[in-house]
Amino acid sequence: MAVVKGDNHILECSKISSATLGEIAWMEIFVEDLPIIIFEGSEKKSHLQKYDNFAVETGGNMIYWNLLIDDITPSDEGTYACSLKSHTAESHSATRTVEVAHQYFDISLSDKSTPDDILAEYGETLQLTCQTIGARPALELNWYQRMAPQPEYHQIHTGYTQITTNNTLDTATYDTTNVLQYYVHKDYHLGEIKCETAGQTAIPSDDDVISFEVLWLPDVQLSYNADKMLVVCESSANPPVVESQYAIIIHGNVYRGSTLDIHIVKKTTITCEATNMVGTGSAAITVSLAAPSLPSFGLLVTSMVLTLLFYYV
Hints:
Elements: E1 2-4, E2 9-11, E3 24-29, E4 36-40, E5 43-44, E6 54-59, E7 64-69, E8 78-84, E9 91-99, E10 104-109, E11 117-121, E12 125-135, E13 140-147, E14 154-155, E15 160-166, E16 173-183, E17 190-198, E18 207-225, E19 230-238, E20 246-250, E21 253-256, E22 259-261, E23 268-275, E24 280-287, H1 297-312
Parallel strand pairs: 1-9, 11-18
Antiparallel strand pairs: 2-7, 3-4, 3-8, 4-5, 6-7, 8-9, 10-12, 12-16, 13-14, 13-17, 15-16, 17-18, 18-19, 19-22, 20-21, 20-23, 23-24
């Protein structure tokens, strides 16, 4: 069981009934060494500094004998056992580990900035760094993303993790750094990236979130409707292209706007350019109008013969 550094913790131990004779003994047990008797009844038997914040409380007509640990620290981690003083071989044990909350938690870009919002261009790779300092045990850091308008977060590929140990007089704490290479795509142009801690049970997970907006160059589509004699230029872009930032170019002439009424009578190349803050995208088409169709000579002769035959009859 894990407990939080600084908490006051109680390990409970009780007799079956008040008729059970003898006092309770508390000890710390080890895998390879002999146990250390801390208390026999209410009398402290060990004067090691480690146990200065330990005490025993009893009550219920001497039925329960609880071990109290005040302001618990990582040095208090261990396996503790209680038993009847006269039957120390028959004991009940409990292991306690101490967790330390992180002192610092943040997401930053590769340039060390820590923005709340990111403007990123499609095709760009962002290097995001998530870092915690001073936690115990060492934390895991997991990445998640949410794309608007979806409400849920989905876990994405975990980046490279590095753990650094900080040794103190008390005990070790750990710094964890996770670096994610995030490729920016434009399936959704708004979203969030979250880094979340994991690995502690007594301390709730924590997270940090940054929002991002994906910008991309205009992807231009161009068409000409011969029946309506209309040129239409459209684009997919973020930020969207405003009407005045479209340019239709024919024979070197530039027409502002996304549509143009024009009668094309010969083979012509039409170009459209669309501009936003990312840059300019373009598309071009060649319009080749076919000459009007005429009746073929064979059909004309057949028609004349049928007419003559009808007249002769």
